[in-house]
């Protein structure tokens, strides 16, 4: 009986998946979907009452540690129904900040929140590290199962990382590591991979001191109604903005300037209804990387990255402009990127989808529209199903629409694709694209249902990938 039930359940899931499959026939369809989505992604509102951290003992001299003052101000504000916790002008050194419900942490213009370099100032919390669940150092700003939270203002969040603090833990010489220097993440990273593969209870995967897994900068986890606006972030230990399993996330007017290892600008992970608009990314890794968990953790939780808008952003520097993956085992669907600008000698790809058969999952309904690119190194559009190690979970990539892509100085290829013969990239459309300066128009293997309409590469129309 159990076997029959399991077979019926599998059949139901397959039928449901097929029923939901979308194939766009014009750009107007995803544009209409975007307008409907914008109606439901809204910033939370807060009680009109301010709580200055100075009133709770904070001293903005750049030397006094203000962790306790931040905690007291946030707790008082939360107890009395919420409002703004205001950081006035000055430089405020602190450890981890925990955001509670109904709190808008407002960083005033002229204010700097300077984060401590002492790992003891970051308590152990339940977190995700490279898409894997574990107990590790708290992200610098963290929230867990909170609602209506915000970080706003024109002030500065300084992660205070450099080649002598946090960055060298990655184990790369260019970031300060060398033989004989204690601190290197590879052994702990390998252990965490093994624990995940064994499906160990994530609450028993405990790291922290002596393991050198760098904390992320801002990580709301399982939160609803998240708003991040206008602040500038610099010098993160690792990923900058990383909402995990969140719903209704609005990120607008944010500047990220951070060139350390794995310094992605924004990594929304397994989150639903996310709008990133009018932001500036100048980063040491991908500008925006959409994720949904690595391997077993991503598949077991089964939450896709869903309903994301990336609009009017500038990617000044970074490895990838809009990236989906590689920790994408939960899948991704309905990702809309429009009216964005990219230009960097370090930009490898404008649109990149990277996954593998150790991940699996379905990546579908990706809309890349009105994109201006100055230069890139590898490919304007890149599909890769062989990123990192292979496994038994063949991924799916389908319904990808690229329109009005303009490139001044391309790199090796306009389109580069490596897929499985049994799982080709399906329903790939390019419309009104002009890509100049590439060495070769394309290098692809398994694509199915391709449509190229007015695609000009190096002045010649590209009509097919044959």
From TrEMBL:
UniProt keyword annotations, A-Z: Glycosidase, Hydrolase, Signal
Annotated Rhamnogalacturonase A/B/Epimerase-like pectate lyase domain residues: 52-105
Signal peptide: 1-19
Pfam families tied to this protein: Glyco_hydro_28, Pect-lyase_RHGA_epim
Record GO biological process: carbohydrate metabolic process
Keyword Translocase on entry: no
GO MF annotation list: polygalacturonase activity
Keyword Magnesium in record: no
UniProt cross-references to PANTHER family, sorted A to Z: PECTIN LYASE-RELATED, PLASMIN AND FIBRONECTIN-BINDING PROTEIN A
Similarity remark: Belongs to the glycosyl hydrolase 28 family.
Protein name, per record: Glycoside hydrolase family 28 protein
Organism, as annotated: Sphingobacterium puteale
């Amino acid at each position: 009986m159990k076997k029959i039930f399991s077979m019926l359940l599998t059949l139901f899931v397959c039928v449901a998946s097929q029923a939901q499959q979308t194939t766009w026939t014009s750009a107007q369809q995803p544009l209409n979907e975007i307008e409907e989505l914008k109606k439901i992604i809204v910033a939370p509102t807060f009680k009109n009452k301010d709580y200055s951290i100075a009133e709770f003992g904070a001293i903005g001299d750049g030397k006094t540690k203000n962790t306790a003052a931040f905690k007291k101000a946030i707790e008082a504000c939360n107890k009395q129904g919420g409002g703004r916790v205001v950081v006035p002008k000055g430089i405020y050194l602190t450890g981890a900040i925990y955001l509670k419900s109904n709190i808008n942490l407002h960083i005033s213009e002229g204010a700097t929140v300077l984060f401590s370099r002492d790992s003891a100032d970051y308590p152990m919390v339940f977190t995700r590290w490279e898409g894997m669940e574990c107990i590790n150092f708290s992200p610098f700003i963290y929230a867990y199962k909170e609602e209506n939270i915000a970080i706003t203002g024109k002030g500065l969040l300084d992660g205070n990382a450099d080649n002598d603090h946090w960055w060298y833990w990655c184990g790369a010489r260019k970031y300060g590591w060398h033989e004989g220097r204690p601190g290197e993440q590879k052994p702990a990273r390998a252990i965490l991979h093994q624990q995940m593969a064994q499906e160990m209870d994530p609450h028993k995967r405990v790291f922290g001191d002596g393991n050198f897994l760098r904390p992320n900068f801002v990580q709301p986890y399982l939160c609803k109604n998240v708003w991040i606006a206008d602040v500038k972030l610099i010098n993160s230990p690792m990923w900058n903005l990383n909402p995990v399993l969140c719903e209704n996330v609005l990120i607008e007017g944010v500047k990220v300037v951070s060139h350390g290892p794995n310094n992605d600008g924004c990594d929304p992970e397994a989150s639903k209804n996310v709008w990133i608009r009018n932001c500036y990314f100048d980063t040491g890794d991908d500008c925006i990387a959409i994720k949904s968990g690595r391997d077993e953790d991503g598949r077991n939780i089964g939450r896709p990255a869903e309903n994301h808008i990336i609009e009017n952003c500038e990617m000044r520097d970074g490895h990838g402009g809009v990236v989906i993956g590689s920790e994408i085992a939960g899948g991704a669907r309905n990702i809309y990127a429009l009216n964005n600008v990219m230009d960097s000698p370090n930009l490898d790809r404008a649109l990149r989808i990277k996954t593998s058969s150790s991940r699996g999952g379905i990546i579908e309904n990706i809309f890349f529209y009105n994109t201006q690119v100055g230069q890139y190194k590898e490919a304007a559009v890149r599909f890769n199903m062989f990123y990192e190690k292979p496994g038994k979970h063949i991924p799916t990539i389908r319904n990808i629409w690229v329109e009005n892509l303009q490139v001044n100085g391309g790199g090796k290829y306009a389109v580069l694709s490596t897929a499985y013969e049994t799982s080709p990239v399906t329903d790939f459309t390019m419309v009104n694209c002009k890509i100049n300066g590439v060495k070769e128009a394309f290098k692809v293997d398994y694509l199915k249902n391709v449509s190229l309409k007015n695609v000009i590469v190096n002045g010649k129309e590209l009509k097919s990938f044959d």
